[in-house]
Design goal:
This protein is mainly β and 172 residues long. The chain has a single domain, classed as Lipopolysaccharide (LPS) transport protein A like domain (lipopolysaccharide transport protein A fold, Sandwich), CATH 2.60.450. It has 1 helix and 10 strands; from the N terminus they run αββββββββββ. Strands 1, 2, 3, 4, 5, 6, 7, 8, 9 and 10 form a 10-stranded antiparallel β-sheet that branches. β8 and β9 form a beta hairpin. The protein is globular. The protein starts with a helix and ends in a 7-residue tail after the last strand.
Length: 172
Amino acid sequence: MRPSAFRAALALLVALSAAAALPQGTTPMFDGILADNTDPLDIRSQTLERTTVDGAQVFVFSGSVVARRGEMRIDADTLRIVVPQGSQNSFARLEATGNVTIVSGAQRASAASAVMDNTRQIITMTGNVRLSDGNNEMNGDVFTVELATGVWRLEAPNTGRVQTVITPGQRN
């Protein structure tokens, strides 16, 4: 079994955070997207609304949202970012909902929603989750990653089965 599809899934989800750090020893497939990245986060949408909830700033981007950082691209109907009081460059939570697709090179993740809880260091994708790296693919209903440990889980409580397709590489 080629572990690159699984590392790709983790790296795609971690890329959602745009600023989260991976635990020691975890190697993302997207060098430069996470740590010490100077690429700007470019978010475009039809509307942007800023509110305050419990002292935190909440930014809601809606309508054909496209967020880019380096080679990474996130598409969603809505992107909600919660920035804690006193923080300027980090966030507590990022929520992408509606037709969520995350792409970086040959790696792709899609779901109905994706949540990066930076405070708890957990990423969750739900609703027809599809993770792929080239021709390798995993499908399920719920994908959860614990950033502190690197442990992840793909479940299929709605469909009853997780599907994994691994395509062998070409032989010389």
